[in-house]
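I would love for you to help me understand the pair of lines that follows before we discuss the fold together.
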Amino acid sequence: MFANGQTIIQYLEQLAPKHLAVEGDRIGLQVGTLNKEIKKVMVTLDVQENVVDEAIDQGIDLIISHHALIYRPLKHLRFDIPGGKIFEKLIKHDIAVYTAHTNLDAAHGGVNDLLIQPLGLEEVEILETGYVQQLKKLVVFVPKTHHGEVLHAMAEAGAGWIGNYSHCTFNIEGFGTFMPREGTNPYIGSHGNLEKVEEIRIETIFPAEIQSKVVRAMMKAHPYEEVAYDIYPLDIPGKPYGIGRIGKLPQPVSLRELAEKVKTAYGVSGLRVVGVLDEMVQKVAVVGGDGNSFVSKASFKGADVLITGDIYYHTAHDALTSGLNIIDPGHHIEKVMKQGVANFLKGKLDENKYKTDVIISQISTDPFQFL
């Protein structure tokens, strides 16, 4: 069985939820429909015409990209000009395009986490937090006979997870009372008689964004016709999300040595360096894509060097003045998302026994060459 397009995107949004995106970012479905069977998915950094040609040759039904195909409003959709030919080919071959951009940048396991992996950074933190999970507490009263079943169902839906610990709950035994009235279909007891049942009060926490999923799972596992439960908002912060990462190398190295390591790690033939090549560095900030707006943040957090792309001339001077070194390997290093997203989707599809194939685009969309 092949997965529906909506199912595939539900999996993708488990990795990169939409609410993590920067306000105004162009994410989501951009071309076509997800309401169809998907035999082949292709993951790419950019949607260029040669990438679309590759997708046509491979029989692709859905393209997942990091950079938006439609970023600025379209004034027209003409097939007789270069930009319009991409849309013509996508429409004629029924290929949908879905974009996950800053939500994938901010996600745990997303672009910035993928970028720091080959650098071996330790004590890693988020460079700029943009979103903190809101936590809620669910309290439900369950008969002893179904305690384990309901608890497990809520945990599988995502409740009761603290770090790498699952099934985190607090339980209190007590008695519940109720009287079934006319028109009810009670699991326990009979009409008109007051019932007293041994029950367990289960308390657990969950991120607010999965509330409906947790409640559905709890209700499905619970034996009662009318379930008694409460949900409370909590003031304690949940997991933070944001753009960029900052951490330390195990040992200080020269800026030159780190630049060479970056070239190897990201597979680039050249890069730009701002700073003194023989200066020793250890605290490293990493931002995928255009990192000009993160220079002051990296400097404020004590970074010795910022690894990012698209640095402007005057921004480089500002960094020098503040004592921050910069390594600019280009915007295209975000290509790491292709393998990362493909691996994640393959795992989800295999876990759910779908035959849908996930393909990584082999086209380099880097517009720059080093001579």
